[in-house]
Amino acid sequence: MAVVDSVARSASPRPSSSSSPSSKSSLFAGSPLAFLPARVSVKQTCPNRRLVIVSKKISGLEEAMRIRRERELQSTKKFKRRPPLRRGRVSPPLPVPDHIPKPPYFGSPLLPELASEYQIHDSDGIAHMRAACELAARVLDYAGKLVKPSVTTDEIDKAVHQMIIEAGAYPSPLGYGGFPKSVCTSVNECMCHGIPDSRQLQDGDIINIDVTVYLNGYHGDTSKTFLCGNVSDALKNLVKVTEECMERGIAVCKDGASFKKIGKRISEHAEKYGYGVVERFVGHGVGTIFHSQPIIYHHRNEEPGTMVEGQTFTIEPILSLGSIECRTWPDNWTTLTADGGPAAQFEHTILITRTGAEILTQC
To answer: What is the pLDDT of residues 167-183, one digit of tens each?
Structure first.
């Protein structure tokens, strides 16, 4: 389950160069290059002076911004939009048996603050993380098998809820900051945090299902975008590349590696296909606490910090076929792309090892 970048910023002080949305934007917005006219007579304009041409090296971040602008202009012309997503009826939250241990936020409507501590585990903690993540992976695989035209996302939520409580675990999203359901279901242009409802899945939809379970005091968090029926080649490719981006981000992880390498590798791959990497939602530390430091940026960035052996966090990039900007419904959860273009997301919880990363939510 992704963390909103603005929440992360309020919980983690940063240098002044990136401590506010406006200063963050300035990292990407390079001043436009000015070129001299093609036919300029040096003798006429500067009779006794040498012509000096000053060049400016374009940074990787500025180049990424230029690519993003071009991509948004091109992709909006190529993709045939599906009917816009509409809210269905949301049924009441499902009950959890008393004997199942609840997370600390259970019963509170307040959104927990992002925890400042990094979650680094001993051997016992790693064993618990493996168990929670293995269950989350099995639940997600089961949920994906339910995806077909005419099935409602509410039906998927009920099936997921039942499987989780039968395993003696708690569905982590339920009641988190007032979230009313046990799983997130994000269809088509919904970037993330979609609330399951009575809307039936349509032939050609794509749907991200985000599962987190709380088992024996530990959270396991994972998500995947599934194809519903006959999906267009454009959407199939978006889904395929999004999963590849996640895999490339995981591939750079190991003890001592810089967190910023994740965003660099993901952005490089997404740009090859003209896709945008959503910046607002980020990965996060996960373990005994649902959301904690470190914040994992999936786009190009210069944030400091290195990975530590025994650490667990999520990598969960969201790619879009159009704009990476977003808008949120009045429910304060469901977040859609600003232009209605489709988006896809994949997520794994990983454990940092001395030589690489172990994918804990691999099914």
So the answer is: 999 999 999 999 999 99
Dihedral sign from CA coordinates of 171, 174, 177, 179: positive
Residue the block writes with tokens 């990787």 = 60
The 3-class secondary structure across 187-247, one letter per residue, is ECCEEECCCCCCCECCCCCEEEEEEEEEECCEEEEEEEEEECCCCCHHHHHHHHHHHHHHH
| CA neighbor of 333 nearest in space, from 113, 21, 87, 82 | 87
pTM as predicted: 0.82
Contact 146, 155 (CB under 8 A): yes
Q: What is the largest CA-CA distance in the chain?
A: 90
Q: Which of 129, 93, 45, 173 is nearest to 350 (CA)?
A: 129
Query: What pLDDT, in 10s, does the model give residues 51-82?
Result: 333 334 445 666 666 665 565 545 444 567 78
**Contact between 137 and 224 (Cβ < 8 Å):** no
DSSP state of 12: S
